[in-house]
What we know:
- By secondary structure, the protein is mainly alpha-helical.
- 69% of the residues lie in helices and 7% in strands.
- It folds into 2 domains: 1-44, no CATH class; 46-113.
- It has helices spanning 22-36, 48-54, 57-112; strands at 2-5, 39-42.
- The chain is elongated and about 80 Å long.
Amino acid sequence: MNFGYREVCLDHDTGERHPESPDRLRAVRRALKNSHGVEYVDADDAALDLIRRVHDEDYVEEYRILSDTLFEAVEDVRYRFQSNTEMQASRKQSKAERVLTEYKEAIEGDDDT
């Protein structure tokens, strides 16, 4: 049995806490190959005329619009999440530096006694 597949699928980033990940996809592929003899072949983009053979024109247009809208929304969320993550990392770094400074001051204070 052949499955169409592209390595670019491994680039799908769902974030650290999502169960869907490149490692999981690799494990599923390996399991299907070992258990069921699945072979993976390079998949081509489906031509729009082929998609229209099996889907209504309204569905095709809705999906295209939805895909564009979702892409924009995901990029916006990813940017905000990344900015928030960077800000949290900065706060953690600042706290770590503060704790280290307080520790050094405490040690130096002990040396004075």
